[in-house]
Structure prediction request, 340 residues.
Amino acid sequence: MSIALGVPAAVAAVVVAAAVIAGIGPRMVRVADRLADLTGLGEAFVGAVLLGATTSLPDIIATVVPAVNGLPDLAVGNALGGVLSQTAFLAVADLTYRRANLEHAAASVPNLVQATVLIALLGGVLALFSSPDVTLLGVHPGSLVLVAAYGFSLRLVNETTRDPMWHAVETRETRADVPEEDEVDRSELGPLLLRFAGMAAVLAGAGFALAIGGENLVAEAGLGEAAVGVFVTGLSSSLAELVVSIAAIRAGALTLAVANVIGGNTFDTLLVVVADVAYQDGSVYAAVGPETALVAAITITMTAIITLGLLRRERHGVGNIGTESALVLGLYALSVLLVF
Prediction:
């Protein structure tokens, strides 16, 4: 059951929640970077799994609530809108690193694996939008395939972190992920995990405020579900990824910055599965409109361009932004025009 708010209160809920999400980001990246060193898991794995999943908590809540309340385009639009926005945020983060293009400096095998898996998952979601409206215990069978593929991707990332079969060529601008073993103090691990859990709880609360605000903007302001999901709740709930990535870049943790976005996007793609589980009127894939499918297609293209950037490794673009990042920002602007 939705909570009724007026338009001003709904806007205020979205703004406050977005500010909380953005404000907690820098604190989380410092804790996550230290956890990567203490656990020995590496920045790519911690960024993709722990940090990426935790900063996705607002997206989870903002997806589940509208799905339960029968708003499929708002729910799925929020999930895919988060992926779309976070991919654009990676291009924005590129602007903040002046030594070289971010794709050049942070190229790594685990990030390439995550990006490739993300393209495959998004392609699967796009295909399911055109699949028959069938469910098994209230869930589309394709959702189970997506979950299995995500689980397999975590294994791949871990394996390629420990034993990569090839390496990116190191240059003067490359920033490798090297744990600071001489500063490791295992007694820090417990308190750091507690701090991280507390910040995760705050993010979850902000996600609930976003969900209620978004629903009221659809009901009271007359805005379309897809537009609100993609560019209001999806964008707002993804601000943590932008702040985290910029904070990681300033701290010199470039691999963590890229892994946080790509890993978070891989996790957020599974939110479509969460929406399918929470939606009570059949398959959520059959219920969404063409605008949501369009967002999925544009996001696949943007992710492929970022992956190409990690492979191509252009050192310097034009105006402190790489060619791939400029293309990604252009596609994001095009998606705004097309969806609205």
The longest helix spans residues 7-39. Residues 7-339 form a domain with the A middle domain of Talin 1 fold (CATH 1.20.1420.30). The chain has 15 helices and no strands.
